# Entry
Amino acid sequence: MVEIRLKNTKTRTVERFEPLDPKNVRMYVCGPTVYDRAHLGNARPVVVFDVLFRLLRQVYGANAVTYVRNFTDVEDKINARAAETGRPISEITEETIGWYLDDMGALGTLEPTHMPRATDYIQEMVDMIADLVAKGHAYEAEGHVLFRVRSYEAYGALSGRSVDDMIAGARVEVAPYKEDPMDFVLWKPSTEDLPGWDSPWGRGRPGWHIECSAMSYELLGESFDIHGGGIDLQFPHHENEIAQSCCAHPGGGFAKVWMHNEMLQVEGKKMSKSLGNFFTVRDLLDQGVPGEVIRFVFLHTHYRKPMDWTEKKAKEAQATLRKWRTLTAGTEPAASASAVVIDALADDLNTAGAVTELYRLATAGDAAGLLASARLMGLLTDELGAWFAAEQEIDKSFFATEVDALMALRSELKAIGKDRFKLGDREGGEEAFAWSDKAREACEEFGFAIMDLPDRYEWELGPKLRRFGIVNTSLGGQVVSTKTKADLWGEVLKRLKAYRLNLRRHMEERDWL
# Structure
């Protein structure tokens, strides 16, 4: 079995991954707060952990991996959006969840095994909070329930901070009802105009941190293998999750491995609305950037390194994918992905190294190996190929008039050949069929793939017209050497038309027209 090694944020080391139960590998990744479209930075952890999900399924089996990614559908940002727009909270959250699933699906991500909503686990949160209060790890104050941070000695281990240093560096005004400045909210009171549920501490709603602890416990148990998310969640969210969960379930270890992806920049700068470089995944999709391209750009950078999104990278990625889809068109994938790709992914999810191997496979012309390896990474799948198919239809229209006209002459030549044979003119029939075959061969040498069917023909652009380099046509012994798509296609179109007109003149001279 492939040995997977992962960087554990908690231990600061790359460790051999040994699941608690190889027949039930479990992973939890923090999902979105659903009040607005997902921006590009939100998409990075989704793609990162989708690749890990695919790798785990490859190694342990598709039915042996459970992946949970939640929706936070009760939170103050959602309340603020509802007040701002005058829309019901349920309407906002339902719409946003739909957007999120559509946008992440456009990036080729597999759906997690479970996608729980926080509002479906309120009672479980209340029960966990009550247990923490009973054990002395939490207390009620002015309608709030707060976690007693100093009751958990290991607090700060994930982020590498001491509680005293955190207090010294804090700039937020401390609520007067807190016993300690570091204590955080597990439950807060709700006014009548805000979402709320009955609890032992009055009508209220959960704090953000308790939501993930309750949902992960219910779906994965008190101990599971991997917890992931963006580096921005390391503190305080993940630190607080550990404290709550380990105190509520001291017999369990909560998450064994913690993984965090680094942040995303745009053109070398932090993404922000003030800089005018803030955009959502949907913005890019609507601008015509295929989801597969976004995914491919992400995979060029190791997840623990900051990623810089640039327009140049997107264009280069699309050009590469276009070549790869052309190379693999009509190819069946190899039985398994390249061992080099699998080993790279198993080496702390080294997607950059895996991508390098994809380039090598493409250069070597190993279409089957490229297809199998790329698909392990969620690339070159049928689901993500709509943009390429649409391009092909547009590209075909450039040549359609001339190719269709030449194919019409072929049809006439075939009909003439049949008539000649019926009249006993064997030589004339063979000549007509020979010219029909020559027309087909000419099309193929120009770079078109011709498919003769019983009652019609179909054609596509072949690899020669996709590989913008040299096209060798034996028509007249000429070689077309070009550097750009426009130059190449313009020259091919001109020669195609000349060939068609020459063929038509020949048919007229033979009185076949």
Observations:
- Residues 270-384 form one domain.
- Residues 472 and 478 are 7 Å apart (CA to CA).
- Residues 468-483 have pLDDT under 50 and may be disordered.
- Residues 386-422 form the longest helix (37 residues).
